[in-house]
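Reading is simple: each integer encodes one residue's backbone shape. The lines below illustrate:
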Amino acid sequence: MKQLIFATNNKHKVQEVRAALQGHVEVVSLAEAGLSGEIPETADTLQGNALQKAQWVWERTHTDCFADDTGLEVDALDGAPGVYSARYAGEHCSFDDNIDKLLDALQGKTDRKADFRTVICLIESQSRKDEDSTTPRLCDFTTQFFEGRVDGQILTERHGAEGFGYDPVFMPDRFAVSFAEMPLDVKNSISHRGLAVAKLKEYLEAQ
């Protein structure tokens, strides 16, 4: 079975992705791969951050890996928090801090439309034979990107205890419950990350 290092130690993300790729790919977290340290996340796009995080892993392991970056884009806030969703309330903030700031920013606003987007960057190692050697060596990599999006509404208060991040206040279109009120398998089938992972899975199965 193909093994991929997932550039995260977020146990909720690892759980979701493992459930989606079960039986097809062995997903290894950073800690399980023996990696530690701060991963840079300084790009101004989701794709840029996903690439940056995946490169950080590949440069240290030369092992196939992937990373994701997710943004919550709220119409009434001109697309904020967007690429800064994880640190919307400041560096080292908690999920609750971010939700509190979001709900405060939307006080009195009737337009609560929003979307969640996830971009996954997959890095696969390439090998090349030197002219004076018959032994292949890892020297480069290829990248593939997979994107998922789900539209919905920001609720006025938290609902549900499952999931993580903004899940308690995000209600996807055509549903009457938040992500945090859904069983994991249901959420994975419709969520931004679930849709991006499904595209990753389809790509891997086609190889």
In short: Residues 2-206 form a domain with the Maf protein fold (CATH 3.90.950.10). The mean pLDDT is 91.
